[in-house]
Amino acid sequence: NFLNGLTVNEAIKKIIKIIVKKNLGTKKITYRLKDWGVSRQRYWGCPIPIVYNKKGNAIPVKKKDLPVLLPDNVDLKVMANPLEKHPTWKFTKLSTGEKVIRETDTLDTFVDSSWYFVRFCSSKYKKYGYKLTDIKYWMPVDQYIGGVEHAILHLLYSRFFMRALAYNNKKFNYIEPFKSLFTQGMVCHETYKNEENQWLYPDEVEKNTDGNLITKKDKKRVVVGASEAMSKSRKNIVDPEEMINIYGADSIRWFMLSDSPPERDVQWSQEGVSAAFKFIQKLWKLNNEILNKKDSTSKTNDAELQKAVNKTVYNVTKNLENFQYNVVIANIHEIYNLFYRHVINSKTSNKTLKNEWEKITMLLMP
Description:
With 366 residues, this protein is an alpha+beta fold.
């Protein structure tokens, strides 16, 4: 009963205090950081500058012999690591003439991407990885954008590398590489399994007359799972080329922007893509109607349309800067409806219609 009335954190502290008092243990903070295995058994990635002699001793490659370059004549169709199977690349000699074998593992590509933004500041500088004057001008990065799953690891590694570069280096004082972080959502889709508990692709299932999902091949029952981030392993992916061939790339982009705020997951929907396609057709139709409209001498509603367009330009600009892309789509829907009314009522001059519509088409370009 000695923990009654305490919060979890308060209870933990009290338990630790009693354990220490009774000499049953000591207070210790543990971190969930683990060693990072940076080697990969594949061709792409930076070669690890280590060689091995006949005794199996690891010997660092001397600085004058760096960088170690990957071979161009590699067979990517071989089983296992192509570098391990290469007939000549891994065999080399030290300056003493001693025969050695190169390390055939390559570095995890995170080793490159964890500091590429520093290299971009001085991409043509050959004396060193970066030029300090360039770093002072460009760093830190203004905006970091990435998916949640990727950004968590990459962000951690990047910050680690910056601290490593700044260690005992008073001239390099950029410990935090990014000013602002924005994590975008993932594209999600329902998951499907057959009766043998095997994953199915969306194009392998269909609805029967009762509205239930079945396999196209043998008409067997399909188990519908939760909507999860699209993954090759779960097969809940959609072929983008097939969708683009049907609806066009702009329809796919429009749907993904309009579905939800960019920081939230997008629930993939064929109906949503179809609706986006139809709206883009409406925009195209309205564009042709404005271009081919008979001249109207009336200028009654010119000022109203001009004000509305100016307001739309302001709102779209503001929402783009704030990553509120779904609100941008709503802004376009709103101004489309207004233009449609102005075309029908013939109380707006053709000159104003065309001039203001040109501004809207420019807004659509991003």
